[in-house]
Write a structure and sequence with these properties.
The chain has 19 helices and 14 strands. It has helices spanning about 15-20, 30-40, 45-55, 75-90, 150-160, 160-170, 180-190, 210-220, 220-235, 280-290, 300-310, 320-325, 330-335, 350-360, 365-370, 370-405, 415-455, 470-475, 480-485; strands at about 60-70, 100-105, 115-120, 125-130, 195-200, 250-255, 260-265, 270, 275-280, 295, 310-315, 340-345, 345-350, 490-495.
Length: about 500
């Protein structure tokens, strides 16, 4: 059956080759120059700088992905998104320069989602850290320096490869914002593969968005109305839309003098953010003076991205597919065609002890991750069925002696038969107790081993949504990254470390 969501996503992976050769407007020279300056300031490796320079080519294209600026790069799927962009760009980088770009969501102000990290060490100990970040402040405005010692102390306690730990801590040192530290970590490990990171709040890059933001200011409710129309069409198609804009809600946020990012609403000819009112001229003045203060909501962000980048492919997670599907009308408002929307790869990392447990029980990692409780119950049921079968056989052995009694008519044989039956019944009871003791130990073993599987594969949801990829680099070194680079850009994969 065809995916009903596809009618709202006109281009997919199969359309990427054609889109790479379809004309795409972008401010390429200014974009390339801004990116090179930004990357140099962050200390990017030469491969990343060279890729940014290639964007100045008049026919350049970009494969884009992105994520919030999570602590220690956030969940592992951050690396999987970046890898997918790198792999797709390399695959299609023939006669046209195709550059992998990772959009750092520095404008996002949901600090609860980026302030925590969880690591699982070789001794199965969980190391957690939650930072006290200022609420409702964009990640690009938060200084990382106050948190440096806490993060490096966490890494010291965790242990692992010292050279990886030193590289991480080196990327954290300096007068960097929270989002810049995130970008520097990506550049440290993926920059040598040609990844370009893009921070929309960077002073070298924020001015590029002024033309698109001016269009939004001039017609502030048009993009919200376009989203709501598509949402209604999705509901008629039996789909639940991810976005919806309330009365007067624009797709713009404004960072106030207090550093808090607030949604702008438009009513009776003026803008308001809950604190004060603004005219169109006020917002244009803010945009001219400090363009990073005016930022897009989720319903505008991908479109704003594609007004600046020559995007041919957009790599997204499964949860992002629905909200990107609602943006067709917003793309039209800005005179753009949507890119090919490509679902990112998924990965389960299997460390050697976990792979051995899976093999012991004949389990598949993705299936266990999808239903750990159901898999555990099935294993216990199988164990119970085995024990019941053995007890049934023992009961039948005992019943055979009752049959022998009926066949023995000679009185002199009754006593030896009785002694034999008593001895055998004693041994059968003893054997049954041993079997039950063994079954209990086995059940406890199953419970412990399945708990271990869950800690590794589904700690609080899928592994890739909990543990950062840097955890595996700390535990196993560069071999983890090397094996990731060999995986395809899309689909579900298992990364073996045995």
């Amino acid at each position: 059956m065809a995916d009903p969501l596809r009618q709202f996503l006109p281009y997919g992976l199969e359309d990427l080759p054609a889109l790479l050769h379809t004309p795409r407007a972008a401010p390429r020279e200014a974009l390339s120059a801004g990116l090179v300056a930004y990357l140099k300031r962050l200390g990017a490796p030469s491969a990343s700088l060279e890729a940014a320079k290639r964007l100045a080519h008049p026919n350049s294209r970009a494969i884009v992905s992105g994520q919030q600026a999570g602590l220690l790069t956030g969940p592992a799927y951050t690396f999987y998104k970046a890898h997918a962009a790198i792999k797709l760009a390399r695959t299609h980088n023939t006669d046209t320069p195709v550059v992998p770009i990772f959009w750092v969501a520095s404008q996002d102000h949901d600090t609860d989602e980026i302030r925590s990290v969880e690591l699982l060490d070789f001794e199965e100990r969980v190391h957690r850290l939650t930072l006290e970040l200022p609420a409702a402040h964009p990640a690009g405005r938060i200084s990382f320096a106050p948190y440096f010692s806490q993060v490096c102390e966490l890494l010291r306690r965790f242990g692992g490869y010292s050279e990886v730990r030193e590289r991480i801590c080196k990327a954290l040192v300096g007068p960097w914002s929270y989002s810049e530290v995130f970008a520097r970590l990506l550049l440290e490990f993926l920059g040598p593969l040609g990844l370009v990171v893009f921070d929309p709040m960077a002073p070298e890059l924020a001015p590029l968005f002024a033309p698109a933001l001016e269009r939004e200011i001039a017609n502030p409710l048009a993009s919200s109305e376009a989203i709501n129309r598509t949402a209604q069409a999705m509901k008629k198609a039996g789909l639940e839309p991810a976005l919806g804009r309330g009365e007067g809600a624009t797709n713009l946020f404004l960072e106030g003098p207090d550093g808090v990012r607030r949604l702008l609403r438009f009513r009776e000819g003026h803008f308001e953010d809950g604190e004060r009112q603004y005219t169109e001229a006020d917002l244009r003045a803010i945009l001219a003076h400090d363009p990073a203060r005016l930022t897009p909501a989720a319903g505008l962000r991908p479109v704003l991205q594609d007004t600046v980048l020559p995007t041919a492919g957009f790599v997204v997670g499964p949860g992002e597919l629905r909200y990107v599907a609602e943006l067709g009308g917003v793309y039209e408002l800005h005179g753009l065609k949507p890119p090919a929307v490509i679902r990112r790869m998924g990965v389960v990392v299997l460390e050697p002890p976990i792979e051995r447990i899976l093999q012991k029980y004949g389990l598949e990692a993705w299936a266990f991750q999808a239903d750990p409780e159901g898999t555990f119950k099935a294993a216990l049921a199988q164990q119970e069925a085995r024990v019941q079968a053995i007890r049934g056989h023992l009961a039948r052995i005992n019943a055979e002696f009752e049959q022998i009694q009926r066949l023995l008519s000679e009185p002199t044989l009754q006593r030896p038969r009785h002694r034999a039956q008593v001895r055998i019944q004693h041994e059968l009871k003893r054997l049954e107790r041993k079997i039950l003791d063994s079954a209990l130990r086995q059940e406890n073993t199953i419970g412990a081993q399945f708990a271990r599987l869950q800690r590794h594969l589904a700690p609080a949801g899928p592994q890739e949504r909990v543990y950062p990829f840097l955890m595996y680099l700390l535990k196993h070194g560069e071999v983890v990254l090397d094996r990731l680079t060999k995986l395809p850009a899309t689909g579900q994969h298992t990364l073996h470390l045995s």
